[in-house]
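sorry for the late reply, my laptop died twice this morning and i had to redo everyting from scratch. anyway the thing you sent over, i finally got around to it. pasting the sequence first so we're on the same page, its 509 residues, then the predicted structure underneath. double check i copied it right bc i was rushing
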Amino acid sequence: MFRLCAVRLKIRTFLTCNLQASHVTGAETRYAYSLTRMELQDFFIEQYDTGDDGMPTKSKKNQAAQRASEFGKGTAPARSIGHPVFGQPESTADPTTFHIKHASDGQAYKAIDALNKAHKLHPLPFPAPRGGVEPRLTYEAILGGNSDTLKKITQSGQLVFHATGDCGSISGPQTQNLVVDKMVSDFTETDPKEVPKFNFLLGDIVYSFGEAQYYYDQFYEPYRNYNAPILAVAGNHDGMVSPLAHAISLNAYLRNFCAETFVVTPEAGGLSRTAQIQPGVFFTFEAPFVRILALYSNTLEDPGVIADDTIGHSQIDFLRAALKRVKAEKYLGALIFADHHPPYTISQHGWSVDLLQQIDTVCNEIGVWPHAFLSGHAHSYQRFTRTRTADGTEIPYVVCGNGGHNVQRITASGTPVLRTPQIIQAAKGNVDQVVFENYDDQDYGYLRLVVTATQLRIEYHPATDGPQAKTPNDHVTVDLATRKLTHFIANDHGRPQAARDIRKLRKSK
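ok and here's the structure:
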C-alpha cells in the first residue's frame, strides 16, 4: 500500500496531460520507467475506475494494462512538432543523481563472456537507411531548412563543431556534466564564427545496451543546455542486446537519432530536444566546408565490423558511392570518416584490421582518401599520424572515447608509462608508417574541430581545464590541398587593431 501511494505521488506530481488522452507524455515516461508494470497497471486502473466516461470496468482494466505495457516497452508514441528544437530555453543546474538508478549488468556480461568463449557472438544485422546506396543528410536539413544560418557560416569562412564518444555514464551524472559544461562554455565567444554549430558523437551514447529507459539520464539531460544539433554514429553498446533481455538491436538509437521527422520522443522525458533525422546507421553528412562519412562498426567488443557475410556489404557500397561522388564533383572541402571502433589504438581494445583494410581497398579503388578519421571505443584520447607510402600524404587518426564513461589507462598497472611520439608501425613495402603522437588517459574530454576552405584543425580539450580555459592540450592541422600536416592559419580577433587604437590614444595624450 505504501509503495502504491509512492507511485501515485510520483506520477501525479509530474503528470502533464489527461490520462484519458491518446498520447503518453515524456514526463510520464521518464518517471514510469522506474516502476514495475503491475505498479503502473494498478495506478492506471485506479485512474480509469474514478472516471465518469461510463466505460465498463473490464474495458478500463484492459486499457490500463495496455498503458502500463507501453511504458514497460518504451513504445509510447513520439510527439511530432514539425521543426527542430535543441537546448532548453533557459539553462538549468546540473543534476546530482540519476532519475533511474542503473541496474547491475553483471549477469548479462557473464552470459556475453560465455557466448564469446564459445564463438557464438556475431555482428548483428541493421535496418537499411533511408535514401538508397548513399544516404545523405545536410546541415540545412537538421536546422529545419534554415538557409540563413548556412549563408552566415559560408560568409564567415569557418565552421566549428564538437565531437566526443563513449559519453554514457552508469555511475552518475558527474563526469558527463564535466564534459558538457566545458563544451557549452565554447558557445560564449566574442566572434560568432568561433561558436560550435553541431556535435558529432562517436558512439556508445547509452550504456550498457542502449536501453530506452537510460536515454534521459545519459543523453537528454546531460545535453539539455547544449543549444545546437547533435548527431551520432552508433557504438557497440548502442546496438548490443543483453542475452537476458528480449530487445531489438539499435531500437532506441534509431528512434532518437534516425527519426523521419522532428519529434520529441518519450525518452526525452519532458525536455525539448527533438530526435535527430539521420537516415540510418550510415550516411553522408554535408555541412559548409566539410563532408563526414558516418559508418556503423557494429556490436562486437572487438573488432569493429562494417561488412561481412552476416550483415552484408551495404556499407562498402555506400563508401564506394560516396567517394565516387566526391571525385566526380571535385569536392575540395574537408573529408572526414567517422565510426566507433578505431583502426589504430593503444588500449585494452585491439586494432580493427579488417575494417581498415576494407576501407583502404575502396579508397585505393576510387583514389580518394579522408583528411582525418575519428573514432571512440577506447576510453581515452589518442592521436596517430598515418603517412601513406604511396604519396607521402598524412592522415590523422583521432580517438576520443573519454566523453563521460570510465576513463581507462592505456597501459596496465605497474608497466612503464608510454612516451610519445613513437612509431607503432614502421613503413615497409606497401605498409604505411603510423606514429602515436599524443594521448590523455587521465581526463574526460572532447574534440573541437575548425574547418575553413583550406584547412582542417582538430583540437583536444580536457574537461578538467574548466570553462575559463580555451587553449587545447593537443591539436593537429591538415592542409586540405596538399593533405600534409601544417601550421594553422590563426584568426584575427581584433587584438592588433585594439593595440593600435591604444597606442594612438596614448600618443594623443
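The chain is about 30% helix and 15% strand.
thats about all i looked at so far, will dig more tmrw
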